[in-house]
Design a protein that fits this description.
Shape: globular
Strand order of the largest sheet: 2-1-3-4-5-6
Structural class: alpha/beta
Number of helices: 18
Helix content: 40-55%
Distance between the termini: 41 Å
Number of domains: 2
CATH superfamily of the largest domain: Aldolase class I
CATH architecture of the largest domain: Alpha-Beta Barrel
Number of strands: 14
Bound molecules: iron/sulfur cluster
Strand content: 15-25%
Length: 403
């Protein structure tokens, strides 16, 4: 069986290269352990002409697409063309969008299978192995719960790693945690890894990370450990840092965590093991709003942790959200003033109503209109009374800001 993995194009380059390394390249690695005829087309990092794409379509028995909310439209168009070209070819979609709107996708004639959670490789293998054809839209939705998350290796695939390195400015980005024990209302992680008997929160084994670091350290300038809450499991972090130091594979690295999962011992150890920047999911400096979005952290704790990071010499970055439900202009401006006073790097990200979208899809309501707003060709326009569009843009894209 000839399989073609496709990362569809989108209007802008995706700066989250960890999705290419982990969601795409690692899934390909796991599937290729069982199926050998695999081709790869990553149109999100490299422009291809139509002939090149169609030639690959013609030769593929299975088309597997990684779809994200911002490339749904392009994905559907590509699948429509593929179906037009081949009578017996089957399409499988996976990724964040597949988990967010499985019912919407299952109604589309160009989609044969929808992988509805984050256990991508297991579910794709299940579809490929079974060879069955769906009869109803509900048959198309594959939602396999697994006891243990299986990790692949993005370095062992034919995905264009050189381009990921180029667009990632020499940084090797890969995921070390999936799922999250917390329940922030604005986050999609619970949709990808829902609570159930499956792997709700899984961490990449320390020795696997060490072996990957050993392989990449000569050719990459830094590493991003993509994590939901990197320091949630202290023992795992301590073991990882100690092994990095013991094996002498220190590369400057960064990751993300919560303010309530840090202490001095951990900060000092991580710094010694190469930590160069820790992004803190602060979201807002407003207690009331933090409570409303179920963040379970307080302003006092945020300030305490930032001061501790400063004392221990750990560089932190504040991750803030603009347009949270009910967020007022006063709340936005107070947070902005405070973060500037703290003199730490920060970035605002636009609130994305993914939970609302998912709930609508669960109710089997039409989500076509909402999907258009995720295209990145527009802004989600979470209009905040008292914040002009000019100010809104200034907050999201301040002059001179490069990720
Ligand atoms: S702690 Fe972070 S990853 Fe976990 S639910 Fe909240 S926002 Fe999502």
């Amino acid at each position: 069986m000839k399989i073609l993995f496709v990362y569809p194009p989108s209007s802008y380059l995706n700066h989250s290269m960890f999705k290419h390394f982990t969601y795409f390249a690692e899934t390909i690695d796991l599937v290729s352990k069982k199926y050998s005829h695999i081709s790869v087309l990553d149109c999100a990092v490299e422009m291809k002409n139509r002939n090149q794409i169609y030639e690959q379509f013609r030769n593929a028995d299975r088309l597997i697409l990684l779809i994200e909310p911002y490339n749904i439209r392009q994905s559907l168009e590509l699948m429509e063309i593929y179906k037009f070209m081949t009578k017996t070819g089957r399409t499988i979609v996976y990724g964040t969008a597949a988990a967010l709107v499985p019912n919407y996708l299952s109604m589309r004639p160009e989609v044969d299978f929808v992988i509805a959670n984050g256990n991508f490789a297991e579910a794709i293998l299940h579809v490929l192995d079974s060879g069955r054809l769906p009869v109803t839209p509900q048959d198309k939705i594959i939602n396999i719960e697994v006891e243990h998350h299986t990790w692949g290796c993005s370095l062992d695939t034919n995905a264009p790693l050189d381009l990921y390195k180029y667009w990632g400015n020499g940084m090797f980005e890969f995921t070390v945690q999936v799922g999250c024990p917390f329940h922030c209302s604005f986050c999609s992680e619970k949709i990808l890894f829902p609570t159930g008997k499956g792997a709700v929160f899984a961490q990449r084994p320390v020795e696997e990370i060490i072996s990957m670091l050993k392989r990449i350290r000569a050719s990459y300038s830094s590493v991003y450990f993509s994590a939901t809450t990197f320091t949630y499991d202290r023992e795992w972090v301590k073991k990882l840092c100690k092994r990095i130091i013991e094996e002498d594979c220190i590369v400057p690295w960064r990751s993300d965590t919560r303010v309530d999962c840090l202490d001095e011992e951990l900060l000092l150890l991580m710094k010694k093991a190469g930590l160069c920047q820790l992004s803190l999911g602060i979201e807002t400096f407003e207690d009331g709003l933090l409570k409303r979005v179920n963040k379970h952290q307080t302003m006092d704790r945020i300030m305490e942790t930032i001061h501790l990071c400063k004392e221990t010499g750990v560089n932190v970055k504040a991750l803030l959200i603009l347009g949270l439900p009910g967020q007022t202009s006063e709340e936005v401006l107070r947070t902005q003033e405070l973060v500037e006073k703290l003199e730490i790097p920060y970035r605002w990200k636009e609130y994305s109503p993914i939970s609302e979208l998912h709930r609508k899809d669960v109710r089997k309501e039409d989500v076509t209109e909402e999907l258009d707003s995720f295209s990145r060709n527009t802004f989600l326009a979470n209009s905040i009374e008292g914040i002009s569009t000019e100010k809104y843009m200034q907050l999201l894209f301040p002059e001179g800001y490069v990720r």
